[in-house]
Structures are given as structure tokens and as C-alpha cells.
Amino acid sequence: MKIRIAFLLLVILLASVGWTFVKRPLSVPKGIGPALPPPVSIEGVSFSVIRGAEMRSQEGFSVRGGSLTKPLVTGLAAFMVEHPRGRLLVDAGVGRNVADHLKTTPLLMQALASLTVKQPTIDALAARGLGPQDLRGVVLTHSHWDHVSGLEDLRDVPVWITPEELAHARSDDAGGKLYRQLEASGPFQLHELSFTGPAYGPFAVSHDFFGDGSVVLVPMPGHTPGSTGVFVTLPNGNRFLAIGDTSWTREGVDWPAEKPWLTRRMVDHDAAEVREQLILLHQLQRANPELVIVPAHDARVHVTIASF
Q1: Does a structural domain hold residue 101?
Q2: Is position 12 within any domain?
Q3: How many domains in the chain?
Q4: Is the backbone of residue 137 left (phi > 0), alpha (psi -120 to 50) or beta?
Q5: What is the pLDDT at residue 2?
Q6: Strand ranges of the sheet holding 207-208, from the earlier edge strand across to the other edge
Q7: pTM of this prediction?
Q8: Is residue 13 part of a domain?
Q9: DSSP-assigned letters across all residues of the chain
Q10: pLDDT, one tens digit for every residue, the chain (308 residues)
Q11: Which residue, 35, 92, 151, 224, has most beta carbons within 10 Å?
Q12: What range does the domain containing 132 cover?
């Protein structure tokens, strides 16, 4: 009898976990969503991607409803904004020691993915004759290992991070482990990112980085407490929104759908806030179909962006 009960409980447990991988789009209000302000046109602004590394796993571990048999290439990237007033990195991409940095993640994550290094951020800069001194700064969408890895090679570059995210990085046992190790080996040039600007589309507050509307930062808490989204508008009116890890895939916004329970438990700080952000982003995309929403890790989206 005890064996039967144990077997039944195991079947129920497996079925419950399996259910969390089944496609179940989030409920979205019927309203089309808010429009963004008219795009500005600032000559000399560009947006490109530094594809630093790739990890391969199964689609179903990245978005609820994805295939558990279909491979998915996860990109580890930094995004470069070039502006007449300086070059700005959105996330630091990967460092030269990224393979060691991966070892700071949970064992399950290490087991589920294989890492292929393509070009550390510092080497991508060097290939164009640039160095850390040529950067205005780095804006972190959040503090997880695959977004701060490149900071190890960019010690003298100013880093913009929200107070909430900095506190999270310094206290979160798993997600902030690499950040704490890097900071312990030498302080960063930290700058407080505060949202004191007016509303921008559906976001109640904002931070206009260059003061001309071309690069606008907005709060996007959920994946981490201080996660940040970054709008970049090009001179031709094309507009991008880097959303960090609010979603790992474009389907997360298009359907919309959250990560499956297993990966949510490993990486998302507040699942309810993530769901709210995904619904907001879905509505934003619906109201602004020309907007290119850029998940930090969707390599399929990265290849549509200019290479640095």
C-alpha cells in the first residue's frame, strides 16, 4: 500500500511539473495599449549587438509552451549605443573568463546548457580600435552573471545601476554571486540610476540618458527588483526596446507567456511582476508594431540587429 501511495504521489508530482511546460498564454486586456511618444531624430545615433557567446538548451525551458525537443540558441550579448556624446553599453556582455563565470550559477543551469564563446566584449571593442576609455558607460538591465561578466574587463568604465538592483546584487545568494565576486576583487565606478523623468508611454517614470529622447531608460522590475528597460531611437525613426530577461524569447512577448515554473524558480525574483510586465509589453507591441522588442538572450532577434 505504501509503495502504491508513493508511486501515485510521484505521478501527481511529475504531472504537476509537466503541466507548467504546457502552453498557456497570459490573459491580456482587450485594449490595444498605449502609444509611445513620437520618435526623435538625433543624427549619429546607432544601435548594434556584440554577440559574445551562445548557450544551447531546449526551447521549452525558456518559454512556457515551447518545445522540449526543439533546440534553442541563447545569445549572451551586450548592446552598443553610439551617440554624438559617447558610446554606451547596455549590459556588459561576456568577459574573457566567462567560462569560469558560468560556474557561479546553479548546478541545474550548468547542466541544462552548453557554452560557446564567440567574442568577449573587450575583444569586440579592440577589433574596432577601441578600449574601455572610449565608453561613456555601461547601463545594466540587471545584475545576473551573464549581464555583468564583461565588467571584469571594463574596470574603469562608469556603471549605471538602480539602488534596488545594487542592493539585490549584493544580497541575492544565487543571482548576485558573480557580481559580488567581481566587486570584491576591485570596486566599480558605480553611478545611481534614478527615474526622475516624466512618463514614457505606459511607464510612469523614465530617465533620459543623453537628455534628447534618443536613449530612454524605464523601470521594469520583476525578473529582479531593479531591472531596467532601455529604449533606443535611431535617426530614421526605428525604435528598439531592450528588455533584459523579462522574457528570454520573443514568444514571451508575442503570445505572451512566462518562463516555465522550473526556470522561473531559478531566475525570476517576482513571478507576478514578470507577468504584469509581459502583458504590458504585449500591449505596447500591439500599439506600436514598428517597435523592436529585444530580449537579452533571443539570438533570433539579435541577428536582425546590426552587428557592432
Answers
A1: yes
A2: no
A3: 1
A4: left
A5: 54
A6: 207-208, 215-219, 228-233, 239-242, 292-294
A7: 0.93
A8: no
A9: -HHHHHHHHHHHHHHHHHHTTS--PPP--SS--PPPPPPP--TT-EEEEEEEEEEEEEGGGTSTT--SSSEEEEEEEEEEEEETTEEEEES----TTHHHHHTTS-HHHHHH-EEEE---HHHHHHHTT--GGGEEEEE-S--SHHHHGGGGG-TTSEEEE-HHHHHHHHH-TTTTHHHHHHHHTS--EEEE----B--BTTBS-BEESSSSSSEEEEE--SSSTT-EEEEEE-TTS-EEEE-TTS-SSSHHHHTT----HHHHHHH-S-HHHHHHHHHHHHHHHHH-TT-EEE-TTBHHHHTTSPB-
A10: 556 554 444 444 444 455 577 899 999 998 777 889 999 999 999 999 999 999 998 899 899 999 989 989 999 999 999 999 999 999 999 999 999 999 999 887 777 778 999 999 999 999 999 999 999 999 999 999 999 999 999 999 999 999 999 999 999 777 899 999 999 999 999 999 999 999 999 999 999 999 999 999 999 999 999 999 999 999 999 999 999 999 999 999 999 999 999 889 989 999 999 999 999 999 999 999 999 999 999 999 999 999 99
A11: 224
A12: 43-302
Contact between residue 229 and residue 244 where contact means Cβ atoms under 8 Å apart: yes
Q: What is the separation, in whole angstroms, between the first and last Cα of the chain? A: 64
- Could you tell me if residue 25 is inside a domain? no
Which residues have CB under 8 Å from 192's CB, separation 6+? 160, 161, 162, 163
Amino acid found at 17:
V
